[in-house]
Amino acid sequence: MDTWFQTKGFTKNPFSLDPVGTSDMALKAFANRVRERAVLENFLQQDTGAIMVAAAIGIGKSSFLNLAENYARKRKKMVLRIDPRIVKQDVSMLVSCMISELEREIVHVTDETLRVSGLSILAKLKIDSLGAAEIRPAIQELNTFFEARPCVMIMDDVDKFSLKKHTRFLKEMLDLLPSKLQVITTADLNQLITSPGLVKVVYDMFDFILPLDSANTIEKLREFIDSRMVNYSVDGVKIKIEDDLLMILIDRTQGNLREIYRYLTDLLKRNNIDRVNLLEVMVELDDLRIRSLDTVNKKILLSLSGKEIDLSEITLQYPEMNQSTLRFRLDNLTQLGLIFKDKEENSNKTIYSAPNVFKEYPSWSRDQVKV
After folding, report:
1. What counts of helices (H) and strands (E) characterise the chain?
2. Is residue 40 a contact partner of residue 113, using CB atoms and an 8 Å limit?
């Protein structure tokens, strides 16, 4: 794929779905977010505290965490990157992951006395038989080490953790090391606004929530798109994408950057960057995703087509399905960008909506999936 983009004057696909990397060069593609960058820089001037970066899926949370790592390392802080896929099932895995990350950082400490001390403490923490009572004093011993080398723990998707266990552990960590440990994490904004339990955890544990806005205006979206093209251009190549096309993208995706970049990747392969080609790309890519769904998810999508429906109404349509399974399926469709999830103003209702698939995909008919 990148070879094709090179023939168009780019070093790689400017609309790659991979998060922007942690290097200065990679982060040139990280556009906009002036306010959020300022908040992050101010936070990292301190040595304690916890913030949550909240945004819908596909808005750029992982890239923002990479920016946080870049800023933290420039301030000579140790950085612990915690993989949520490893730790979300078990607190002990979170401890193990932290120990591994600390060990990786400590071996590069130039002060030999400090390095030896840190490794000695980690050796104690590595003993599998240590219970909470033994871990606590061992962690407290790290205070001396952290006084010399402040640390930032960065992890994605805290909303996917076993909340009760993990948040309690993280809060203990912050309490034990109040002077030199910071936590930066992310959560799906849609999960946050529709989960009272998660909201309580956030307010109990985090100092503040930093929301990332979607690219929901032409001006915002153009800044994201232009910065990507400039950053990955060989000789200043910049393909013009007209305002009416940006508006179509915003209407279809609600400003979701991941979905916009997915459409633009295929659009750039067309001879003409115009309305006709954009609509064809949208239909082709969405049709492929819809056809990949199982029968139940197709039924749910079709029942939402062209509508805005409260979760309780959807539940009534599927009495045979327990609510957790239904929520899982709705979240799956949301992650695929086929439906949207929102919180109704002035109420606690969760609203789901979807484009009219019968109108946008004429190859479909109600005979294909009985609703």
Report:
1. 18, 8
2. no
pLDDT for 219: 92
Q: Are 360 and 287 in contact (CB under 8 A)?
A: no
Q: Which two tokens stand for residue 211?
A: 């929301």
Q: What is the pTM of this model?
A: 0.78
pLDDT tens across 132-166, in order? 566 667 667 777 677 777 889 888 877 666 666 65
**CA dist., res. 143 & res. 140, Å (int):** 6
d(CA 191, CA 187): 7
Contacts of 292 (CB under 8 A, 6+ apart): none
Structure tokens that stand for 243 in this block:
């305002």
Q: Which residues, 6+ apart, have CB-to-CB distance to 307 below 8 Å?
A: 353, 354
Residue in 231, 241, 298, 313 with CA at minimum distance from that of residue 272: 241
SS (H, E, C) 66-116: HHHHHHHHHCCCEEEEECHHHHCCCHHHHHHHHHHHHHHHHCCCCCHHHHH
